[in-house]
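Support request, please re-run this one:
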Amino acid sequence: MSGESPERTWTLPDSLRELTEGGTEDLLKELLAVFRADSTERFSLLRRALKAGERHEVRTQAHALKGSAAQVGAEAMAKSCHEIETFAPGGTPAKLSALLERAESQFEEVCEAIVRVYGD
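Re-run finished. Output below.
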């Protein structure tokens, strides 16, 4: 192994990092807290929609999660949510469930990284 880490879980985009430069780290922390709370709720809605076979709602929630993940630099999570969105109309429930589990795991990793850097 070369010592390099696998795909990074989370890298704060420069546009958000700039928020901390003027002493406005509290604004960044608030934004990240909103991301965590909103994503938690959306994953719950997505899981319910998947169980109910509501493909349109699965796609809608995956799309929203993809956008917010990309905005905060959670690229792997955004990619997984994009896959859910893409496969929502015709993917098997097993495939969608596996993608959802991966996205939720990536979300947990992002949350852990956020807490390590910025606290609760």
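Residues 1-7 have pLDDT under 50 and may be disordered. Residues 25-118 form a domain with the Four Helix Bundle (Hemerythrin (Met), subunit A) fold (CATH 1.20.120.160).
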